Every structure is written in C-alpha cells, then in structure tokens.
Amino acid sequence: MNAPVFLCQSDELTDGRYREFTVDATDEPVFLVATRYRGEPRAWHNVCPHQGRALNFAPDRFITDDDGRLVCCAHGAVFEPDQGRCISGPCQNAELKAVALSEKDGQLFVEL
User: Fold this and answer.
1) Would the pLDDT of 91 be above 80?
2) At 11, which helix (H) or strand (E)?
3) CATH class (in words) of the domain with range 5-111
C-alpha cells in the first residue's frame, strides 16, 4: 500500500455536497468523488458501475436528489451517500468502488 496522499483541507468537504478530485499518485490519474455523510468523509472512484461513465455532468458538478443522494448524470442511477450502493436505476444494488480516506490535523488524505 502506498503512503496516504493529500486530498484537500477538511473544511472543503461538507455534508451533502459532492466534490470531484483528481489524484496523481499512481502511473495514471485517479478520478474520485467525495462527500461527507453525517460528518464522516466518504470517497469513491468517479465511475458509474452501469457503463463506466463519470458521475458528474461538468467539472466538480454533480446531481443530487432531494435526500442528498448522488445521481449519475448519464442514466439516473441513485447512490446512497454512506456506502455508495445504487438504490435505483440501471445498476440497482451495484456499489461504487470505495476509496479509503483518513483525516488528520484538518486535512484529508486518500489511501490508494
């Protein structure tokens, strides 16, 4: 396992808001979507399990439903903000690929 890589300042990630990040810690960049859920940071690869497309419709722009769940811009799959499980849409019960995060001294780190 590689050493944790800085993602962002802790206060840049808030409950109910999804953010896009690119991490250049491997041979190829890793594209992530991250949020907080009940105060805990969460992150996944920014890839819908349905057809492998990015979840966002523009840089750092994501669709959410009235309950704060992430909605894939391409096919409308709806993902829970706690575990990234699809609860509605063409890939129902599939899960986004989670990425471990750690938080220390006001900073968030990704563990690839």
Assistant:
1) yes
2) none
3) mainly beta
